[in-house]
Task: inverse folding
């Protein structure tokens, strides 16, 4: 069942040289007030035949404590409308002492500057109780930037195969981004 959860946040975005900096305090109302903070540093690094997207995130949540996230995804253009992505992500949650990783591969077709369609295979692992595969998932993603740098939405149906028996578990994600 879906609960009554309400949240609000205001993000501050700044570009310092070639580094994108983001800070976002957040207040959630879920039977009580919960406060969290989020900071992110990112910058694309272009080489002759690929682009690396390193990103570091630091966060603090009143429920789960502090943590960090780092990714270094690599985009390799195959053709002007086709790109291969190598996914390499990790996250550490201090309060529960869990280290998790996401490793995988994605393939994206760009219809034009505003629309794309992608496929991904991701393996998710965690250090609890021992470091092992928690699940793998297959997803397809449609992204549409309705108004460039103003409004976009993403639809992502997926099939997850969680441990221990890896029985199929379907799902769908929606994102709506408004930038002003």
Result:
């Amino acid at each position: 069942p879906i609960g009554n959860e309400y949240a609000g946040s205001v993000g501050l975005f700044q570009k310092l040289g070639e580094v994108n900096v983001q800070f976002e305090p957040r207040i959630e109302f879920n039977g009580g007030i919960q406060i969290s903070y989020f900071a992110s540093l990112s910058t694309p690094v272009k080489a002759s035949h690929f682009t690396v997207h390193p990103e570091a995130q630091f966060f603090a949540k009143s429920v789960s404590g502090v943590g960090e996230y780092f990714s270094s995804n690599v985009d390799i253009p195959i053709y002007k409308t086709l790109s291969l992505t190598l996914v390499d992500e990790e996250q550490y949650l201090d309060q529960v002492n869990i280290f998790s990783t996401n490793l995988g591969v994605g393939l994206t077709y760009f219809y034009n500057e505003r629309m794309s369609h992608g496929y991904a295979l991701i393996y998710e692992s965690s250090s609890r109780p021992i470091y092992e595969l928690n699940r793998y998932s297959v997803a397809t993603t449609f992204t549409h930037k309705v108004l460039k740098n103003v409004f976009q939405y993403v639809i992502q149906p997926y099939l997850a195969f969680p441990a221990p028996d890896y029985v199929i578990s379907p799902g769908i994600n929606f994102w709506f981004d408004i930038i002003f």
About this structure: The mean pLDDT is 87. The longest strand covers residues 132-147. The radius of gyration is 18 Å.
